[in-house]
Automatic annotation (TrEMBL):
GO terms for cellular component: endoplasmic reticulum membrane. Pfam families: TRAP_alpha. Residues 1-21 form the signal peptide. This is Uncharacterized protein. It is found in: Endoplasmic reticulum membrane. It comes from the Eukaryota.
Length: 172
């Protein structure tokens, strides 16, 4: 996908770091990751996304109509986690891949208890030329100790289409 394929994930991470910096200023007692530890923190969370309105032939983004994504997050951690935000972007399929459109980033603040799962609805609207694109969705989750992780939620090809028209449609 090229070197900019995960630019949207990086942008989401920057937003989380800004939010974390605000939290650190408000709560100086929260732990901060020590770079000298050389330990790579991880989180045991499974993320999957479905599109309830999709067709057999794949996901279609209808211009002007909201697209609903159901993001299912399973917390396999011994402590609760918090889902902070969900966002994404649309990319070209050609190499090198180019960012076509950044989607709305939605804040949630939903806590998921240990060893449980929740499904969160993420809606977005497109107004683009009809074409096939790559859709990348990501979610940011925070552990109890304040560490924030960016988790890929969806990475697949979608089709941008115009809404169906009828001669009986009053808008025509």
């Amino acid at each position: 996908m090229g070197k900019f394929a995960f630019l949207s994930l990086a942008l989401l991470s920057v937003q989380a770091l800004v939010a974390r910096a605000e939290d650190a200023a408000a709560n100086p007692d929260k732990p901060v990751l020590d770079d000298a530890a050389n330990a790579v923190p991880q989180v045991n969370v499974d993320v999957s996304t479905t599109f309830p309105d999709s067709e057999v032939f794949g996901v279609k983004l209808v211009n002007g109509l909201p697209t609903t994504a159901q993001v299912k997050i399973a917390n396999n951690e011994p402590d609760p986690i918090t889902v902070n935000i969900i966002g994404g972007s649309l990319w070209t399929l050609s190499e090198p891949s180019q960012n076509v459109h950044n989607l709305t980033v939605s804040r949630y603040g939903v806590e998921i208890d240990a060893k449980s799962e929740k499904t969160i609805t993420y809606n977005f609207v497109t107004e683009l030329l009809p074409q096939d694109l790559s859709l990348n969705l990501a979610t940011m989750v925070a552990k109890k100790d304040g560490l924030i992780f960016t988790m890929p939620a969806y990475n697949g090809t979608v089709s941008v289409v115009e809404p169906e028209m009828s001669i009986f449609d009053p808008q025509v």
